[in-house]
Automatic annotation (TrEMBL), chains A, B:
The active site is at H40 (proton donor). Keywords: ATP-binding, Cytoplasm, Ligase, Nucleotide-binding, Pantothenate biosynthesis. Homodimer. CDD domains: PanC. This is Pantothenate synthetase. Pfam families: Pantoate_ligase. Catalyzes the condensation of pantoate with beta-alanine in an ATP-dependent reaction via a pantoyl-adenylate intermediate. The keyword Ligase applies. It is found in: Cytoplasm. Pathway: Cofactor biosynthesis; (R)-pantothenate biosynthesis; (R)-pantothenate from (R)-pantoate and beta-alanine: step 1/1. NCBIfam families: panC. Beta-alanine binds at Q64. GO terms for molecular function: ligase activity. It comes from Mesorhizobium montanum.
Length: 283, 283
């Protein structure tokens, strides 16, 4: 089986998508930063359930990294990524250079309020501006019918949904369940930074979140339950907890016990920051 | 001759444009805030030189008015506007309510840097955020091939061009020459606020700008020439001058004598704020 066609210019991307569209084919997009793992593969599979063609963008977007963050060491492994995309059945890999996405004179920023409030934004203030701007650009470049985003980055999924509704972007946003290892650890490109002992600790994140979500669903006090979860993460070996917070599932407004909720967390293992989230059933 | 079809929902707008597109017709858009005058009519005529169908949006966009500005008194006259559009040959008028453009939960803002710096932004700090956001939305809603904007709002034209380039919006932006009365007064919906004596004064704005641009093109000192122009406006009867500034024609970066330039001004007549601009030829 052939691997995906690789293009690095917007012109070539548009030409291919236009040809597909003229042939009556639906086009799905999976935006990624590369370092592809089973989670990304599942996004491509879901994309191909909804469209005949799948474009995967691989672009480590500098505008969503703060100067102190891991832009330079973020894993880049294009050959391996293309192998994975071939196996997953993706048709086109769009691998633009930074200068193709942000040419000289670039001066535009999209800010999404609402679901971007708090959580990641408290610790990465410009992160969602970077995400919203690059996602809008990718959608304008590729003009997909739909795009698939993982629930692993749950707040990002909510922000992208809000972005598309607010700017009337004609792209259906599909959320995809988080892929986990046998111990429930969410697949993440940043897991590559972890040693074996750290992986053991990292696996406790989802266990503690699931247990806390269950407690919240069955009547536990919100402040006590999330505070206990943060303590449990430290006891499990995490060095620092950025947040463990319950929110409403769609708007990320403050949690209400009688509605669908989401429990979200971010915590540090050494110099690696992990995030995860789980459903809270309405009580 | 029939007037334009009037739709107030995005759904109806998209359905009409989709039908045209299926029929192989090119679609142009003219975004307006209504209170249409000869300047707008010229935009529609230019649109129809470039496309078989013309959509005109009429939407007094609240997000580009500051709380102190004239949102409530901005002239609204839909029946007259539709007469003008019929005469101009526009095919569709899109007249959304505020709730159609900004439904509950709306939370997204587009900020364009670069050409938005200074000039209008010094006096209307949120103006171009409002313009950029609504223009992006209108383009996503109507999906036109091209859109026509008047040079009267010259900084706006530069900001919209930058917006489209930066976000890869697949819309060609066409700038249209300012329509003026026999005395050179630029057509503007806000001229309706002016009494007869004020109109006489307003007509001096373009005269003073043309004269100053000529002086700049033939070697005058920039600071002196623009300062003299501001003084001349006050002497002519304007109560206050917000700015008279020379800039580079495309980027609106600081003026350079050997490049195409633009001389831009904003000044107050009573409670009415007028803007205008003229070309500066390279020296």
């Amino acid at each position: 089986m052939n691997g995906p066609t690789v293009v690095d210019s917007v012109t070539a991307l548009r030409a291919q998508v236009r040809d597909w569209r003229r042939a009556g084919l639906r086009v799905a997009m999976v935006p990624t930063m590369g370092a592809l793992h089973e989670g990304h593969v599942s996004l491509v599979r879901i994309a191909l359930e909804r469209a005949e063609r799948c474009v995967v963008s691989i672009f480590v977007n500098p505008t969503q990294f703060a100067p102190t963050e891991d832009l330079d060491k973020y894993p880049r492994q294009l050959a391996r990524d293309l192998d994975r995309l071939r196996d997953a059945g993706a048709h086109l890999a769009f691998t633009p250079r930074v200068s193709e996405m942000y040419p000289a004179g670039f001066a535009t920023k999209i800010s999404v309020g609402g679901p971007s409030g708090g959580l990641e934004t408290d610790f990465r203030p410009s992160f969602f501006d970077g995400v919203a701007t690059v996602v809008a650009k990718l959608f304008m470049q590729a003009a997909p019918d739909c795009a698939v985003f993982g629930e692993k980055d749950y707040q990002q999924l909510c922000v992208v949904r809000r972005l598309c509704r607010d700017l009337d972007l004609p792209v259906e946003i599909v959320g995809a369940p988080t892929v986990r290892d046998a111990h429930g650890l969410a697949m993440s490109s940043r897991n590559a930074y972890l040693g074996e002992a750290e992986i053991e600790i990292a696996r406790k994140l989802n266990v503690i979140l699931r247990q806390t979500a269950e407690e919240l669903a069955t009547g536990a006090d919100e402040t006590k339950a999330t505070g206990d979860a943060a303590k449990a993460l430290i006891e499990a070996g995490f060095q620092k907890v950025d947040y463990v917070t319950a929110r409403q599932a769609m708007t990320l407004a403050p949690w209400q016990r009688d509605r669908n909720g989401r429990l979200l967390a971010a915590a540090w293992l050494g110099t690696t920051r992990l995030i995860d989230n789980v459903e809270i059933l309405p009580g």
